[in-house]
């Protein structure tokens, strides 16, 4: 039977076409903002940011913009996730600690690139929601915990890499001490809530080397556990 005038027989192609175009734009935005590491681009192609954004903002998940999530927090801008991941340079055998699970998107991108991700947030609700997305997406090498990340996770230390996705006045001492020699930490640092400098810290045999990367805007690292 010939398709009638209101047949939707070409809709699946249309959807697949839209999705491919959206993906192309997403990757183009990342590249044009300096995310050039092919491993990072492949990881970000694989993890669907749409799975980590809920409610009103769902349809903006593929734009290169930060978006609000629960508990007054934000999912970072994709190009900033890309640049931070690139700077962290995790290897396939690495264990990575992330401070600030938020939506879980950054942890998911890291999980494609390393052996294991431990991620902590001070909000129970964010940890529970992120865990549900990790399960739904089949990301089995991520462990999420409710904890004050300023103290790191001493019982699991030391780490090959530490990613801090909330702004600190200085790189927190406990996190520096939980980094392996040769390990790298990426952390937004600054006195102001409005703008901070992204720093890459490398632990050497004798101390720490600091590289300033660029200006960023993150929510602050807050002491203690959240109410929810
Ligand atoms: N990486 C997240 C974005 C993080 S937003 C993502 O990909 O979506 C910053 C997060 O840091 C928030 O969820 C906030 O609750 C958390 N946070 C702030 N201070 C913290 C602390 N001391 N310990 C653990 N998490 C903290």
Automatic annotation (TrEMBL):
One Gene Ontology term, aspect cellular component: cytoplasm
TM regions (residue ranges): none
Keyword Membrane: no
Enzyme class, broadest EC rank: transferase
Gene Ontology MF term list: protein-L-isoaspartate (D-aspartate) O-methyltransferase activity
Entry's localization field: Cytoplasm
Reaction(s) the record says it catalyses: [protein]-L-isoaspartate + S-adenosyl-L-methionine = [protein]-L-isoaspartate alpha-methyl ester + S-adenosyl-L-homocysteine
A Gene Ontology BP annotation from the UniProt entry: methylation
Active site positions, chain numbering: 76
InterPro entries listed in its UniProt record: PCMT, SAM-dependent_MTases_sf
Keywords, alphabetical: Cytoplasm, Methyltransferase, S-adenosyl-L-methionine, Transferase
EC number in record: 2.1.1.77
KW Ion transport (keyword) present: no
Family: Belongs to the methyltransferase superfamily. L-isoaspartyl/D-aspartyl protein methyltransferase family.
NCBIfam families membership: pimt, PRK00312.1
Job description of the protein: Catalyzes the methyl esterification of L-isoaspartyl residues in peptides and proteins that result from spontaneous decomposition of normal L-aspartyl and L-asparaginyl residues. It plays a role in the repair and/or degradation of damaged proteins.
Protein name from the UniProt record: Protein-L-isoaspartate O-methyltransferase
């Amino acid at each position: 039977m010939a398709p009638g005038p209101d047949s939707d027989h070409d809709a699946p192609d249309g959807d697949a076409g839209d999705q491919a175009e959206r993906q192309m734009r997403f990757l183009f935005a990342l590249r044009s903002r300096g995310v050039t590491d092919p491993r990072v681009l492949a990881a970000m192609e694989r993890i669907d940011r749409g799975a980590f954004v809920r409610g009103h903002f769902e349809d903006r998940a593929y734009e290169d913009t930060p978006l609000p999530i629960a508990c007054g927090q934000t999912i970072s801008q994709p190009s900033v996730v890309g640049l931070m991941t690139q700077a962290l340079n995790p290897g396939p055998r690495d264990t990575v600690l992330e401070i600030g699970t938020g939506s879980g998107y950054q942890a998911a991108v890291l999980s494609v690139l390393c052996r294991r991700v431990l991620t902590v947030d001070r909000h129970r609700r964010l940890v529970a929601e992120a865990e549900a997305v990790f399960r739904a997406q089949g990301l089995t090498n991520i462990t999420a915990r409710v904890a004050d990340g300023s103290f790191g996770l001493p019982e699991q230390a030391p780490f090959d890499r530490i990613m801090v996705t909330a702004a600190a006045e200085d790189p927190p001492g406990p996190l520096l001490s939980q980094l392996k020699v040769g390990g790298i930490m990426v952390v937004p640092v600054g006195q102001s809530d409005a703008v901070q400098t992204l720093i890459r810290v490398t632990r050497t045999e004798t101390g720490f080397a600091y590289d300033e990367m660029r200006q960023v805007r993150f929510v602050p690292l807050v002491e203690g556990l959240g109410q929810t």
